[in-house]
Design brief:
four-stranded mixed sheet, eight-stranded mixed sheet, alpha/beta, 14 strands, globular
């Protein structure tokens, strides 16, 4: 069973449908006892970092996520869900993340980002190529460098350790696209909207947690 964590975020139904298309069974829940029965957990998200973190904390899901990951459960954050895995976001203020991976979430074109091309539009929206940072990871199975994924975001992760980055995209600067550390995975783009490439990456994640029947 694949647990989709329910914290009143957007982009839930499309993620569930993508998992089911791959042969997985899904459940949408904020109930910890239900999520505990799942072999893999997914934290999707579209919206504001601050509100998302508040919702997680009010439901005590922040501590549950840390506990579940510590116990070895397969975990994926998508888009905003990936950003919340990191230490801090500067979206409309300053917000503490889950600190499961280290780095900050900043807006494209931040004042200290000297390399930013001011002609590039914000948000980073549309198809962009995935460039390999390390190809030796099982999440890369049957995915070739240069394949495209669909991004929609105005804030991006500045990781403390680039060894956590599997794929990145070039949008004037390096934008982490897929991250992994042990049983923690993140995808900044939307795998459920990224055609064959996105579904293959999602399949690879689910196989890590033995969440698929094949």
């Amino acid at each position: 069973m694949i647990g989709i964590i329910d914290y009143d975020a957007g982009n839930v139904n499309s993620v569930m449908k993508a998992c089911e298309k791959l042969g997985g069974q899904t459940v949408l829940s904020s109930n910890i006892s239900v999520l505990d029965e799942c072999s893999s957990l997914i934290l999707p998200g579209v919206g504001s970092f601050g509100n998302a973190v508040k919702n997680l904390k009010s439901a005590k899901l922040d501590e549950y996520i840390k506990s579940a990951i510590s116990s070895g459960k397969n975990f994926l954050g998508i888009c905003l869900g990936m950003q919340m895995l990191f230490d801090k976001s500067f979206e409309d203020g300053e917000w503490e993340g889950l600190s499961l991976l280290h780095g900050d979430v900043v807006r494209f074109g931040s004042t200290d980002d000297a390399s930013w091309n001011r002609e590039l539009k914000i948000p980073h929206m549309g198809w962009n190529r995935l460039i390999s940072n390390r190809q030796d990871d099982s999440i890369c199975t049957d995915v070739t460098e240069g394949e495209y994924a669909y991004f929609v975001h105005s804030y991006y992760v500045r990781p403390e350790d680039w060894n956590d980055v599997v794929y990145y995209a070039d949008y004037g600067i390096k934008v982490p696209g897929v991250v992994r550390k042990g049983n923690i995975f993140g995808m900044q783009f939307h795998p459920e909207k990224s055609s064959r490439t996105g579904l293959q990456l999602l399949k690879n994640f689910l196989r890590e947690g033995e969440s698929l029947a094949y």
